[in-house]
């Protein structure tokens, strides 16, 4: 196992605070390569679907989408058709998945064996149930019904749902920063249980492990990504003796560390479940970008809300293998899992 060069431990969930001048280099851990999964909210949900589909050979367990939308949605119609509870077309996106299979994206036949989780709030008007229903319809062409679950949460707005109160959270029925809310539904727990089956009860007390900041540079970074990412390592996963699992958790727009600090990392509940179930949680970070960029389907847009790229800001191949943000996240995953026994 490669050690962290310079530890930068965040004071999260009762963890001891010990900061240094620079972030750590990303380490490697004993992670079962068959155990990798990803989930995300909003733009992170779109990105989770992109990763789960384009890199299905990497994300062999599956993917979860909280209030995201169809794969390749914005390439074929203006991006606002994929938001605001519209009814985006999935005809061309489905055809693209079929045509790109085994080349621009991994073989879509993989999706029959992947676990797929979807969740949306009934009061979500930012993305909305209609958009999510189109994702469900799209994936029905490729995934297996028994491996797929679709959840609607009554009264929830565009927010990450939990069943506990976190400091600074927004009301469940209001789409406002930090977009994490007690909605009486444990989103993190449910997506992890869908990925991995029955889990040990979560740890609602002091965490056993650490949240570490790492350098999100070189092959681990890309346009539209911050200089640092974060990773939660349960104590049992630190010595290399236990084969752990890896889940990538992607924040949504306006949820990067630079915007809401540790609220997505701490308040969503992923770490609580990870702590008792030998799961490492990777939190890559997007960043604000006020530069105008050409996007798919015409026009130019900045990215001031630190959204993940689901509209083509950072290349025509943003949702294909080699798209710079997806390639950076996959590079992080490869490094983390390189210590597998």
From TrEMBL:
Stretches assigned to coiled coil: none
GO MF entries: hydrolase activity
Gene3D superfamilies: alpha/beta hydrolase (3.40.50.1820)
Keywords: Hydrolase, Signal
Annotated Peptidase S9 prolyl oligopeptidase catalytic domain residues: 30-161
Pfam families assigned: Peptidase_S9
Alphabetical list of InterPro entries matching this protein: AB_hydrolase_fold, Peptidase_S9_cat
SUPFAM superfamilies according to UniProt: alpha/beta-Hydrolases
Extent of the signal sequence: 1-23
Record's protein name: Alpha/Beta hydrolase protein
Organism in which the protein naturally occurs: Aspergillus lucknowensis
């Amino acid at each position: 196992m490669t050690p962290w060069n310079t530890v930068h431990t965040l004071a999260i969930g009762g963890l001891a605070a010990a900061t240094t001048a620079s972030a750590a280099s990303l380490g490697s851990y004993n992670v079962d390569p068959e155990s990798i999964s990803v989930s995300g909210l909003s733009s992170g949900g779109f990105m989770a679907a992109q990763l789960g589909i384009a890199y299905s050979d990497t994300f062999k367990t599956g993917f979860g989408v909280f209030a995201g939308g169809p794969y390749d949605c914005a390439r074929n119609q203006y991006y606002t058709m994929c938001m605001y509870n519209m009814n985006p077309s999935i005809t061309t996106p489905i055809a693209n998945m079929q045509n790109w299979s085994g080349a621009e994206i991994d073989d879509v036949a993989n999706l029959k064996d992947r676990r797929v989780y979807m969740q949306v709030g009934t009061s979500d008007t930012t993305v909305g149930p209609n958009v999510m229903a189109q994702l469900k319809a799209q994936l029905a062409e490729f995934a297996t019904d028994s491996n797929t679950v679709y959840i609607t949460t009554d009264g929830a707005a565009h927010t990450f749902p939990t069943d506990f109160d976190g400091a600074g959270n927004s009301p469940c029925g209001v789409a406002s920063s930090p977009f994490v809310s007690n909605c009486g539904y444990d989103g993190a727990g449910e997506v992890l249980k869908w990925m991995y089956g029955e889990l040990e009860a979560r740890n609602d007390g002091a965490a056993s492990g650490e949240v570490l900041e790492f350098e999100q540079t070189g092959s681990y970074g890309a346009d539209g990504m911050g200089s640092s990412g974060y990773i939660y390592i349960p104590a049992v996963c630190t010595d290399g003796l236990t084969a752990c699992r890896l889940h990538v958790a992607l924040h949504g727009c306006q949820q990067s560390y630079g915007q809401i600090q540790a609220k997505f990392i701490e308040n969503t509940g992923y770490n609580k479940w990870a702590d008792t179930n030998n799961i490492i949680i990777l939190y890559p970070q997007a960043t604000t970008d006020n530069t105008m960029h050409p996007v798919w389907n015409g026009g130019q847009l900045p990215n001031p809300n630190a959204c993940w790229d689901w509209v083509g800001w950072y290349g025509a191949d943003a949702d294909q293998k080699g798209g710079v943000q997806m390639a950076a996240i996959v590079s992080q995953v490869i490094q983390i899992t390189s210590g597998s026994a």
